[in-house]
Design brief:
alpha/beta, four-stranded mixed β-sheet, 9 helices, 17 strands
Length: 457
Amino acid sequence: MRRSLILAMAASLTFAAGTTVYLASSASAATACAPAWSATAVYVGGNTASQNSHNYTAKWWTQNESPATHSGQWDVWADNGACTGGTTPPTTTPATTSPTTTPPTTPPTTTPPTTGIPKHALIGYLHASFANGSGYMKMADVPADWDIIDLAFGEPTSATSGDIRFTLCPATECPGVESEADFRAAIQAKRAAGKKVLLSIGGANGQVQLTTAAARDTFVSSVSAIIDKWGLDGVDIDFEGHSLSLNTGDTDFKNPTTPVIVNLISALKSLKARYGASFVLTMAPETFFVQLGYQYYGSGPWGGQDPRAGSYLPVIYAVRDFLTILHVQDYNSGSIMGLDNQYHSMGGADFHIAMTDMLMAGFPVAGNTANMFPALREDQVAFGAPSSVSAGNGYVAPSAIQQAVGCLVNGSNCGGYTPRSGTNPNFRGLMTWSINWDKYYGWEFQNQNGKYVKALP
């Protein structure tokens, strides 16, 4: 999720005079030819003035114009001279590997836990620590339709500190913000009404890299302090950008060795042990970090793939026994290959159906049918969609959202895609970014998609 679609460029970047680079972002509205990928991404942050000081021509590239082999976050790619103006990556890109065996659709056998969350839930993010064009909303004013409310965001004091902080939006930025006492009281009122209120950690600006055991322990203690202070039900992991990536040679998602992955898994297990059966854990990764793992995992056999590809998979796998809901962001995404070995793009029901089916059917990682990412339980899966055209790329009308849900739940009106997972009557529901944007646009997501989901048997 993003506070803003504008990031700046660091003054420390240097390129040869005349070099053309590409600022890759699925949020960009302009399109340039797809670049010949360099071996690694350079993650940046600065401004237009500093861009000009580096003697290169800046171009935008929208990732959804070609197969998604790189993140929808903001990266710099140097043109090696092979850019031809087309939208397909040049042949220097490692060849796409398409699994040839349809993954099994045997459902998980674990028993769904008793969570107090409705069978079909509506999940939304509340801009609690910052303001943007959608306006601030008090916790007490969040309508009762929302079953899980994610407080956006808890962010670290630095990328590698593990020290997560959460504060209410300051009055100078959010006129009318409630007092801490009123905020806490409103949270408890929501919980008394059966709602779940979670701390969402990360977001586009909150890079969290638990590189050391000390950072892991600080993460656990600081997150616990926030949960205890506000009386929350658990956490939502919304790590984006460069928070998670896989070291070269870390190829087995069931036995990861990369510190940022291993330490996050350990931290989540510690939080679960601290709070017990009532602890609610949700995750909101982008498609790049999950479904792209069907084709690419980490830096790959060539060593030139983006090491973030599929990097959520080991975390999801390790906490699958106590993961409450995985709601992937089906927005700000490039085209992703589904289990039908076809690329699916944002803009209709098809993308939601194909991406969500992968989670409830399971899939071979990086095309290796001997290395299967197992299916999650139906009740552990929802999907995320923008609540409005201003909330993120990938908005579709309520009719498309409802078509996707109907297909996943009862197999009706699936269009050209046949879900490998079959019917999923216990599919959990919908997540949206955000409650604030939904209010700004007249509650379309809540009143149409939310009510549709809640009316399912």
